Amino acid sequence: MPEIAWVSYGELRSYYDILKLNASGNPNTSLPNDVVINLRRAYYSALSHTDDELGRVLQELENLGLANDTIVSFWGDHGWQLGEHGEWCKHTNFEDAVHAPMMIHVPGVTDKGLVTERLTEFVDLFPTLVEAAELEPLPLCPENSDQIGLCREGTSLMPLMRDPTMEWKEAVFSQYPRSKNGLSIMGYSIRTDQYRYTEWPGFSGPPAYKPEWETMFGVELYDHNSDPEENYNRADDPKYATIRNKLRDQLRTGWRKFLPPV
Description:
This protein has about 260 residues and is an alpha+beta fold. The protein contains seven helices and eight strands; from the N terminus they run αααβββαβααββββα.
């Protein structure tokens, strides 16, 4: 793992009970087992409470007779690391931080429940809600959308709701920033059905907001077929050289190449 991929979870270490442990947050370190157990217990407790509150809202929709006329979107803006690899919080491009829940109920479409294993992204949510509400479709954002008031980069998931096994996106994208010695860095990640590939180039801020691919601070490649926990970085493994080159080109080409055929 390149150094830039790691974060010392300063958010968690800033709390008094963790601060007094003098934890470094460095790679290959971990918090004491009893602390880990208590943190996980508290996290699961918060989830149970949230689940109960959500249930109250949904029940009230039923009570008011609005359930059959209400689109419900429930999602988390990121995943959460609970000690995997010794890491905590959300500030990475690892699978546990990037892979997050997204559930949508559209009356008359998802009533019987359905699950898809196709790759989706949060940018798909906006056009999905627009189509589900039967509003005018959103135009696709042009390469330069600085002067565009309203457009989309995602794809409505309504076709996927009707056919969860249909041909869909072959890759999805995410990113998370870093800084090092005053330099801006951006971690760009592409996820396919088998691989996660991440590059950490320099990054130019406004007005360009562009990666500086010639200045690279780290590369990661994880094979989720053999290593779903992302324990082995294959970026420099000669056996993965061909797939690394392919994923690098796909990452730098960007999301437009992977729009589904709908």
